[in-house]
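Long-time lurker. I teach an intro course on protein structure, and each term I like to show students one example going from raw sequence to a predicted 3D structure in token notation. This year I'd like something fresh instead of my usual example. Would anyone be willing to generate the tokens for the chain below so I can use it in lecture? Attribution to the forum is fine with me.
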Amino acid sequence: MIRIYLIVFLFFALLGSQALAKTTVEWWQFWTDPSVKPTIQAIVDDFEKAYPDIEVKLTDLTWANGHEKIVIAFASGAGPDVLELGSDWIAQFAVAGHLRDLSDNLSADSNQYQGYSMATYDGRLYAKPWILGTRVLFANRDLLNQAGFEPDYLPVTLDHFKAATLRVSKLNGVYGWGSNTAEKHRLYKKYLPFFWTKGAQVFSDDGRYCVLSSDLAIQALQLYKDLHDSCGYVASQRGIEDAFLEGKIGFILSGDWLLKRIELEKREINFVTTLFPGLKFPGRSFMGGEFLAVNAASKNSEAAIKLIDFVTSAQAQVRFCKANRSANPSSKQAQQDEYFQSNPHLQTFVKQLSLSNHPPVDPDWVNIETIIEEAVEEALFGSGRPAEALRQARQKITDLKHR
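-- Reply from a regular --
Happy to contribute to a lecture. Here you go:
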């Protein structure tokens, strides 16, 4: 009889241990800011309450070395279940077979999110858009008024924009335009809005040829150089923003982080945000973003996908954006929240997202980006010949793609 009781006890003990067993999902992410990390943790806590059979292990990365750590983890056949990836990295890791193909899991809700094209490589989806980013035009309203413009004037076309920057620059001690130094990962993002607005492309429609040195691309770089040479305040991104907040620059191209800075630092500046100027109507800006992907080697992919869906839900995105003062949730439902609808500056960013291009989804983009950035540097700080700088860049990219 004792043996029977012991067997029954062990049977139910085994059932209990199985019921308590949890699936652990490891998530590598980059949001370490003390004002944001608690919200990330709170979202994870809510996920674990909604899915008590899953626990999440968070690991923080930095932008300084996060990409390198991910590369090393993949090379060793290890790595987390869920990864936060910059949009530029997706093709690189997808083509190497490191990311799970999520097409069957994500295609049904793809029309509810912006940014899926950045996660699509060779017709397949490898990540889900989370928080996007774009850049809009910031203008100092006081300087525009001092330059004689109407109280509500804002340039809509590139021609009007160039004329306005020159006019503002005639004010004493003032510059019309904030022009980046040769700052890695920054400068090319300032050129590409001009490039795309002019209608230029990096590759031909079929993707077979690099067309970086087209007439339209040269016109765009010449315009950027004209602004740089004639009325540009030349500094790093931070330096440009400092000067703008001090009332020294009429126009700068910047992201939503500047709105956050103005708010937190309680800056007294009469500014306005507007869409990037175009040819006849608003033009195209730069779009990138943060995406969530699943490691192809993960043994917990089902739980990982549940975590991704929870973190990228409209409710969670609004919560995150409020904590980070971000303007660009990928969820279209989140964009309709009162938080965004009630703030004209956030609305500018939301609208600009629909008028933005992103770099080609290409495994070699990290190297291509460097080549384009060096061409812009050469035109601004070297020979001063946009056509030759772009021609050389086109040849380098062609050689890279045919190696």
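Some talking points for your students: The mean pLDDT is 94. DSSP finds 18 helices and 13 strands in the chain.
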